[in-house]
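README: folding subset

This subset contains proteins for which both the sequence and a predicted structure token string are available. Records are stored as plain text. Below is the entry for DUF948 domain-containing protein (150 residues), shown exactly as it appears on disk.
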Amino acid sequence: MSGGEIAALIAAGAFLMLVIVLAVPILRLRHTVDEATQALRQVNQRTGPMLDNVNLTVDNVNTTLGQFQTSLDGVNVQLARVDVMTQHVSSATANVANLVNVVTTTASSPLVKAAAFTYGLRKATGDKRKADEEQAMREELKARKRMRRG
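--- output ---
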């Protein structure tokens, strides 16, 4: 055997040792890869039904939100009606306040009181004159009737 053949045999033996040393971790790695593959299959099998449940839950939430939106629309319509009623009540309240101010001003104003007193005095004086004139006229008519008779 020549030196080259011995070197080849040593290289072949070293390569065989390398393959044997690397075969053990590769076999262990194969078991790890098989376990990971099995875990991924289980996750895939469980994910489908979970996603179906999530889709059903989202559909139920969307339905509930639609009903809630309908309720909110109804509430908004009622609030608009209440707003209109509030505006009417506010307008009526303002009118009553103005009327109270007018009555208060009329009843408590000294100028108005003086004018009312003067009017009453003129009316009373006028009524008295009219009554005196009517009385004088009656007496004069009675006097004329007496003169005609007598």
